[in-house]
Design goal:
Length: 167
């Protein structure tokens, strides 16, 4: 049974929990500062990098209010956004939380008028690779960075169709 996850927009007071979740997620797959894959300069600027620039950053809280999942949507250009920072705390994995965040971010991308979503992950992050494939993402290229194979993917979004008003 999937427990209920409350998904909401990031607030500045979430930074410490989001930062910790990011570090835990990377350590789980053996990534660390200086490895050529890891970067974190966006965390102190989540509002300006994501939310204020036609994107979003979501967190998922379990019933006790603890942030156990997160994901961001960052503008690349007028038609393309990047989905990034998709993380689920190891204690809460395999409950569908990653899928819930991914679905909500895809929905937000459509609402914001994006036609294409892009993202990347490493081969070490097998659950992420499978999640992207399950949701119709296609691999567009691979590259070796810092001893890790980074997969780049994309998904074309169907636009949001608003009902026509009857006159």
């Amino acid at each position: 049974m999937t427990e209920r996850l409350r998904i909401r927009r990031y607030r500045w007071s979430d930074l410490d929990e989001v930062w910790a979740l990011h570090q835990i997620g990377l350590a789980q797959v053996g990534l660390m500062p200086g490895d050529g894959v890891y970067y974190d300069d966006d965390f102190p600027r989540i509002h300006s990098v994501y939310i204020a620039d036609r994107g979003d950053f979501l967190v998922g809280e379990e019933s006790g209010g603890r942030i156990v999942a997160m994901g961001g949507l960052r503008r690349i250009d007028d038609e393309t956004a990047e989905m990034c920072r998709l993380r689920v705390h190891p204690e809460f994995q395999r409950r569908g939380y990653g899928a819930m965040i991914l679905e909500r971010l895809e929905e937000r991308a459509r609402e914001l008028g994006y036609r294409v979503l892009r993202g990347d992950t490493t081969l070490q992050q097998g659950a992420a690779v499978e999640l992207y494939r399950k949701y119709g993402w296609r691999e567009i290229r691979r590259e070796v960075r810092g001893g890790s194979v980074v997969l780049y993917g994309e998904k074309y979004l169907t636009p949001v169709v608003l009902p026509q008003l009857i006159r």
